[in-house]
Amino acid sequence: EQDGEKDHTTKSQHKQEPPNLYVSKTPTEARGHTSYLTFATFLPILD
Question: Where is this region: Disordered (predicted)?
Fold first, then answer.
């Protein structure tokens, strides 16, 4: 589970980036971030 904690730390660092950064990505890149964006939606609640 430590790997999961490290993964959460990485996502927390990315969360500091402005949301519109992902909107400006190309459709292919944005598609790759779909699962991350879904997870990131809950990060503010966890914090």
Answer: 1-30
* pLDDT score for 16: 58
How many domains does the chain fold into? 1
Residue 33 near residue 25, CB atoms below 8 Å: yes
The pTM of the whole model exceeds 0.70: no
- Give the count of beta carbons closer than 10 Å to the beta carbon of residue 21: 10
Average pLDDT of the chain?
Answer: 57
Residue linked to tokens 């996502």: 11
Place of tokens 């997870």: 39
Average pLDDT over residues 25-46: 59
